[in-house]
Amino acid sequence: MSCLTDGILKARLDGELGEEEAKVVADHIAGCAACRAREESLAAYAGEVRRALGALEPGPGPSLPDARQALARFRAEHGAELFDAPRRGASSRWLAGILASRWRPAWAVLALLVLVAALLIMPGGTARSWAQRILAMLRVQKIAVVEINPQWLPGLDNDPARSAVAQAIGRFFSDSIVVTINPGEPEAAAGAEQASQLAGFPVRLPSARSDVPTVKVTGELAFHMTVDRDRLQALLDEAGRGDLSLPASLDGATIAVHIPKGSFAQYGNCPHGRQPGAATPPQGADLSSCLMLIEVPSPTVSVPPELDIAQLGQMALQFAGMSAQDAQAFSQTVDWTSTLVVPVPVRDASYQAVQVDDVQGTLITTLQRPHARSPAYTLLWIKNGIIYSLTGFGSADQAVPLADSLQ
Amino acid sequence: MGTVVTEGKLAMTSALSPRDAGFEAAFVKHYPRVFGILLRLVGDRGQAEELASEVFLKLYRQPWLADLGGLDAPEALARDLSAQAGLSGWLYRTATHVGIDHLRAAARRQHYEHAAARAGTRPAEDGDPLQEVLREEQRRCVRAVLAKLPPTRAQILVLRAMGLSYYELAEILGAKRGSVGTMLARAEADFHKRFLKMFGKEKPL
Prior knowledge:
The model of chain A is unreliable at 84-139, 149-159 and 273-278 (pLDDT under 50). Chain A is built from 13 helices and 15 strands. Chain A has 2 domains: 6-54, no CATH class; 73-404, no CATH class. By secondary structure, chain A is α+β, with helices and mostly antiparallel strands. Chain A is 37% helix and 22% strand. Chain A has an 8-stranded antiparallel beta sheet with strand order 4-5-8-9-15-14-13-12. By secondary structure, chain B is mainly alpha-helical. Helices cover 71% and strands 4% of the residues of chain B. Chain B is built from 8 helices and 2 strands; from the N terminus they run E-E-H-H-H-H-H-H-H-H. In chain B, strand 1 (3-6) and strand 2 form a beta hairpin. The termini of chain B are far apart. Mean pLDDT of chain B is 74; it is low at 1-15, 69-81 and 115-124. The chains are: A alpha+beta, B mainly alpha.
């Protein structure tokens, strides 16, 4: 037998030879000084590399991240550029878009979306003369916070039944929504003055910050959708929520949503600096300087007058994980035609009422930040018909002083 | 509801194409290992997470990803194994590349020493600051050597250090199982040689 290759010797050292092979190899080595010497030096390298690479083992800190949470994060950050591509029409692209690039920074998005979605999910029908049927007009005048426990929601987990429901709901939306005004790309503004001109309302910036923000004005958006009650009910049934029975009056209802131009200002080192041209902050960068301010005049949502908004809102809350009793209690205390309902997942965030900008606002504080790249707080308030959302990565104590310095 | 709140994050439920579904399945399956490779290479969790996202972004943009969609379909099962092996190989290779690129870029910016020192800092397990300094220095050297190795060699060393068997390595690297020993032996010898060249013998290994 000629001398053994390094590969064989290495596999022997690693115990990766088959029984038969190992025996033949052992016999050879016993009688071959050259192979023994070679094996020794391979073992020395291996030991060295093992110690070297062993030093890179993660320390005793937190265990590996949960892949599904990572996926949720990934989608939140990149959803718009990715998951829209193969789909129909501009509608779903917009829906993905509102999540990602333009509006990504904010809980305000969440708020808007919830309002929109709560109404959208409600039924509709044939939209022949939808414009004439729209009588009731919703306009956001105040904010209310509800606690939800979102365990239930069909999400990104791998439970096939749930993700099937999630897909069906997504399809429902992309089939039903017609975008009438496409917001297009945000326009850059040099400062508050230019932003105000572009946006058509007075854009304010915090004077407490002396650094220069990136300011963008996001386009106007309008869409409407007509709801097929039976199809929606079937979805609810499928989702295991057959207990939520959609009223027949919803069939054929057309809901129209209009979101005016808004302004988005970003200060400091932000983790989501993926907007074109923005540099990603370097590793370990201190993000506490990051501040994101969204200002948008109240969106309007138009619904047919026969729609019982309170009933639908209650259902939406139940769907989001509230008990029927709690949802009913909340639904009765809130004026659904003028209130932006912000669901706060109880496990992840707490909220409190604060006095800000001479009005009452809501400060939502993240309880446990999975990493320093999550915002520490979001402050929401409404003044003169403009919804403000201020999100920061620094201490939540700064929120109110910053907001009070807007001018 | 169109909105889904997951762990405080908002996501929109949406109709997933088979391609997207395939992507998501791949993400969930391979994320831990991709992250593990990057964490070893760069040392900082936040950075490793960011780079892992980069890897999956690249994956999403691969035209062949479409072929992996609908992996549940019966006709896909046959090619499933090889496709999956190709996929994991691609992902781990890309993760290694991305991690090494990051190390190299960091070195070029000359922040490396500082960044690595900060990134790798963890509570000293035995409470001995001197030991911790030495360990940190060692990690810095190891990463510097890995960054100099050809990526395929760095990859096999990192994957092996993560406990993968020859069988798994062969699958991932698209090699015969019989060649894995040879590849490892070469990579280890190369590591040894470069370490010696870059840091001399006196370094703590």
